[in-house]
């Protein structure tokens, strides 16, 4: 079975061991539907928040061993099976919903720490849930997983500046914008001056270093899952290369991976894992 990514979430591809495809797919659809409730369509904020609250109540319901209601049964029936069979940490699933609810209000982030706290709930639970399924619980692995997941989330933000800003979403920490003579809440899509490019460059370097610090995890995870993680890491680093190639002008245009990048990523994954010597 092969399905698309939830942002940078590697899901039940052919690289995934067959016994884990069902729980990984269940987690994927749980996150995908929640993200759509928070972000898709034209529903007002109040409706989105009410839907997410109901969705969160359904998570608590199935976590307590109760059957799900009909509305999202296609999500919570397989998820409840995964929770029971694999003892999934429900708090991590709840953290994802907490981040989605936060997204509906489009807050500004005063500094890197506040943005990383958002990533702790919006991205890091995915990596921790996958490690749980693979039976990997040591602290070094968890820290590296958090670094990779947060880095991927941040890279996605810098990649999507030209898309997110017109929608009222600004993930640029205010303190970072101020360092370059800008105000985060006044940065506009389409701007491509020296200050904006320098800001994006600095944010990309921050994300790149996080990715390199977490990348050795790909050698810690055995088998095909380790190979998939290598591809994910190299995919994130490749996006950063594309941002650099366009002189960090992601306020004006959005870079993306194409099918022509696949051979390069496969070759890099085969050769080495970035940061492995750290």
Automatic annotation (TrEMBL):
The keyword Transferase belongs to this UniProt entry's keyword annotation: yes
Superkingdom as given in the UniProt entry: Bacteria
Organism from which the protein derives: Ideonella lacteola
Protein name, as recorded: Squalene synthase HpnC
A Pfam short name: SQS_PSY
Coiled-coil spans in chain: none
CDD domains listed in its UniProt record: Trans_IPPS_HH
GO molecular function, one term: squalene synthase [NAD(P)H] activity
